[in-house]
Amino acid sequence: MQRVGDPIQLGGAATVGKPPVQSDQSSLVDRVKLGDTAAFEELYRLHCGRIFATCLRLSGDRDRAEELTQEVFLKLWTKISRFDGRSAFSTWLYRLCVNLVIDHLRVEKRTEHWVTTGVELESRPDPKTGPSPHLTAALEEAILRLPKGARVSFVLHDIEGYRHAEIGKMAGIAVGTSKAQLHRARKLLREMLG
User: Fold this and answer.
1) Model confidence over 169-179: pLDDT tens digits?
2) Intervals of the chain under pLDDT 50
3) Which residue, of 84, 124, 172, 173, has the greatest Cβ tally within 10 A?
């Protein structure tokens, strides 16, 4: 199998896993459901770049991201029969990927990559003033009090570093909604923290 992220030769031109139109993917998915390994390899080539990038962003480690990418595709092979076509295949696969990586992070107790607790905030002192347990506890409490949409956009953008387009895909909202929710979250946090 080819290395994750390498350009793919299709019809003589190099591409980097650009997904085909939905109808082409539907045909591939149907073939994979019947056990067609050539169709599975085609789906792998089409999506491995994006899946690898997601695994890398979530895990923060290139080698781990390669392992997770392979695991995502193994899981795809075993769970593809559950794909019912109510969403785009790429959306379904991306959610499968995110869920798998987050599950691994939980098991490995590396939650500081995606959730920040007061203890972890206190363990990262400000180089100028040192830790402020009162402020970190207040910040944590304020984040938890944010409305769900504002909280999701704030955590994914300002803590996790996702772009609004990515947040939109993950949360099923428009890019503009993600931006508005982030603005709302920052405003509410400023008000809560004085």
Assistant:
1) 777 789 999 99
2) 1-2, 5-21, 109-132
3) 173
Q: Domain ranges in the chain?
A: 8-107, 115-193
Q: What is the pLDDT of residue 117?
A: 41
Residues sharing a CB contact under 8 Å with residue 32, sequence separation 6 or more, in sequence order? 39, 40, 43, 77, 80
**Strands 13-15 vs 8-10: parallel, antiparallel or unpaired:** antiparallel
Scanning the structure block, which residue is given the tokens 């609004």?
164
Q: Which class is 8-107 in CATH? A: mainly alpha
Q: Which residues does residue 15 pair with via DSSP β-bridges, in sequence order?
A: 8
Cα–chain center distance at 82: 20
Q: Six-digit token pair at 122?
A: 């206190």
Q: Which residues contact 158 (CB under 8 A, 6 or more apart)?
A: 182, 186
CATH of 115-193, one of 1.10.10.10, 2.60.120.600, 1.10.390.10, 3.20.20.70: 1.10.10.10
Specify the DSSP class assigned to residue 2: P
Question: In this structure, are residues 163 and 152 in contact, taking their beta carbons and an 8 Å threshold?
Answer: no
In tens, the pLDDT along 118-150 reads 433 333 334 444 444 555 777 777 887 888 778
